[in-house]
Amino acid sequence: VGRIVVVVGALDVDRARVLLMQHGVRNVTAVVPGGAHRQDSVFAGLSHLGEAPVAVVHDGARPLVPPDVVTAVIQAAAEAGAASAGLPVRETVKLVDGVDARQTLDRDRLWVAHTPQAFRTALLREAHHRAKAEGFYGTDDAVLVERLGYAVRMVEDSPRNLKVTVPADLDLAEAYAGQRQMVRTGIGYDAHRLALGRLLRVGGVEIPWPRGLAGHSDADVLAHAIMDALLGAAGLGDLGRHFPPGDPAFRGADSIELLRRVTAMAAGAGWRVVHVDSTVLAEAPRLAPYIPQMQERLAAALGVDCSAVNIKATTTEGMGAIGRGEGIAAHAVATLINVGQ
Fold this sequence. Notes:
Its EC number is 4.6.1.12. It catalyses: 4-CDP-2-C-methyl-D-erythritol 2-phosphate = 2-C-methyl-D-erythritol 2,4-cyclic diphosphate + CMP. A hairpin with a 2-residue loop joins β10 and β11. α7 runs parallel beside α9. Helix content is 33%, strand content 28%. The two termini are 28 Å apart. By secondary structure, it is α+β, with helices and mostly antiparallel strands. The chain folds into 2 domains: 129 residues, Spore Coat Polysaccharide Biosynthesis Protein SpsA, Chain A; 156 residues, CATH 3.30.1330.50.
């Protein structure tokens, strides 16, 4: 593709130029306002195209076109003069009068036309000038060329190249795009001793108990493990790097607020939290009654639904420091997807 002409609504020209620059789209030689009809917009784009052996027309409503389809359509147009992406009809097609089917058409000869469509540039210009002179408006550019007596070679498209026209189409397009999203997983761990004179806070919830967890902040092991997992998944180091244990700014800090900050840091790096799974290891107290509250507090800080935060509590059956009641530990796994910066 040597040069690109982008056609948008008259009020969107400046915004389109900014977006194209921000996303580093190259080879755009002009951004021009379209017309009242699709055909008028294509005509406006053609007038700014200049000399080119083949002109390609593609609808912005088809954002997921595979590059190999574009290449195949261009090659077909270079050989045959005119080509269109499309899909053979695989369902039974009825000719309907009102709501009554009158005839079943031969689907073996039917295709659904898509874009991109490509043509020898001189041929497409001739077709548009003829249509304009005769006041004819077609639903695509291929029909204008067909009116001149030329055949349009069909190139089988990908089903992913859907046209976004109603909200349900957008949902499907987002689902297709999501399949290409990068997924990362991070693992977090934290442990603190139990000490007299401290509040016991786990997952942002205060739990009545004679001893609490000792630490520079509120020592919420579950929130800390989750933060460490988020930082790991986002490639942002570990908890101590961002919140040094000796820093007076974090003395007695609320770990839920720190979790909000870590979530924002991950978002700033282009990552969104999808799911967190965690396990708290404590011989006592019994944590199960508090888990729903923990899920609510953590989910709010993470910006996800409660169903995306899973918390399990278990003991070590009396083994080790945790089993002797000397402290509490937590493991966490965070799943993130990239959403761009």
